[in-house]
Amino acid sequence: MNIKKDPREFLLNCFNIAIESANPIKSLRNFLPSPPKGRVLVVGAGKAAASMAKAVEIEWASGVKLSGIVITRYAHGLPLKNIKCIEAGHPVPDNAGEDAAREIYESVSALGEDDLLLCLISGGGSSLLSLPADGLENDDIKLVTKELLRCGAPITDINIVRKHISKIQGGKLALQSKAPVCALIISDVVGDNPSDIASGPCSADPSTFQDAIDVLSRWQVNVPPKIEEYLEKGKRREIEDNPKPGDTRLRHVSEAVIATAKTSLNAVKKYAEAQGISCISMGDAITGEAKDVGEVIGGWAFSVGSSDSTDIKKPLLILSGGECTVTVSGDGRGGRCAEFLLSVALKIASLTDGSINIYGVAGDTDGIDGVSPHAGVYFTPTSIQDIVSMGINPKKCLENNDALGVFEPLKNVITTGPTLTNVNDFRGILII
Asked: Is 23-131+168-203+242-259 the same fold as 7-19+262-431?
C-alpha cells in the first residue's frame, strides 16, 4: 500500500483490523471448557452476546445438551438454534432487559452439580442485565443511570452503583448456581478486570455500599428515595453486600477474558509494521474527558510530526485505546470518539497551517460512538480549514458537544453498523 497516496484507506484498515481481532467467532473456541456430564445452560449479556452465543453453537453443534438465553442491545441480535436471543435497552435499561434478566436468574437456580453454567459477558451487559434488587424498581434505576451518564461519570463509577442496586450483578448471578460456572468475557474496560465488565455478574466485588453512596454524592446525582434508602440500609449492614474477593462461595467459578483492547492494538501494530510503518502504542488505558485527552494527544502528535530528530522514523502511527468520557453541556451530537478527534484536529490546526501531514481516526469497536449511527470519524491535515471555509465554527461545535457537525459535512464519518463485539475505543494518529 502506498500510504502517502491513500492514508485514509490505511487508517480505516487499521480500525477494521481492531474490530476483527475481537471477533468472538474466531477467539472463543480456544477458551471453551470440556462439556459436562449434564446439560449446558448458556446465559449472557452485552453487545457481543449474540455473536458469542453463535460461536458456542458452532463449536458445540452436536453431542452437547445446549440451551439458554442471552441479552443484547436492540439491532445486535442474531438467529440462534438452541439459545434464545433477547434484545433490550442500552445504555438505559428497559422492561425487556428486566424480564430477560429475571428469566436468566430463575433458570440458573435450577442447575445441578453435573451441569455447567456458561456465562458470555461483554460490554453493555450492565444495562442489559438489569434486574433490580428486592424492593427497588427499574424506573428508579433508569433515572440514576441517565443522571450518571449525563454528568460524565466514568463507567467504573457507574458500575459500582449498578452492582449495589442489582439482584444479579456484583457476583450474585454465580451465587445462584449449584453448577460449575465458566465465564467467558470480552473486555471493554481499562484494566480488563472481570468485576468491572458488565458489572461482574460472576465476579467478586471489592466495592461496598459506601462506595456506591460516595459515587452518587461525588457526581451530585439526584437519587430516588427508594435507592437512597436501600443503599443506606446496605451501609448499615442490614442488607448483605456482594461477595468479596476470597469468598469461598465463588470457588466453583472460572473466568477468562478472551478479547481485549490490548489484543486489538497489537494486531493493528503488527499490520502497520508489515507495511513498513513505525508504531508507538500509548496503551489501552487512555481515559479522561474526551476533549481534554484530545488536546494533549494533538499537541504531542504535532511535536513529533514537526521534529527533525533522526530518532523519529516516519511514517509513524500513534496508537491508543481506552474509554474517554463526555460531560454533556450542549445539545449537539457527538460521541466521545468524535469529540476526542475534533479536539486533536483543532489542537494541531492551532499549531500549523496544514503543512505537516497528520491524519487521524477514532472509533468505537462496537460500531456506535455515543448515540450517533456512526462508529467513528477521521480527519486530514486540512479538515479544520475545510470546515471553516463552509462557514462552520469547529470550536463552537466542540463546545456544544456537536463534533458530528464538523465531520458529517466533510463526509469524514465511519459507519459500520453493529459489529457484535466491543473492546472499546480505537485511536490512530498517522504522521507522514
From this structure: no
| CA dist., res. 7 & res. 305, Å (int) | 15
194: helix, coil or strand? helix
CA distance 259 to 262: 8
The amino acid sitting at 23 is N
CA distance 418 to 194: 23
Per-domain boundaries in the chain: 7-19+262-431, 23-131+168-203+242-259, 132-165+208-240
Rg (C-alpha) for the chain, rounded Å, is 22
Homologous superfamily of 23-131+168-203+242-259: Glycerate kinase, MOFRL-like N-terminal domain (3.40.50.10180)
Cell of 97: 432487559
Write out residues in the chain with pLDDT < 70, as ranges.
1, 354
Give me 429's grid cell. 494518529
Q: pLDDT by residue (tens digit) across 373-428?
A: 999 999 999 999 999 999 999 999 999 999 999 999 999 999 999 999 999 999 99
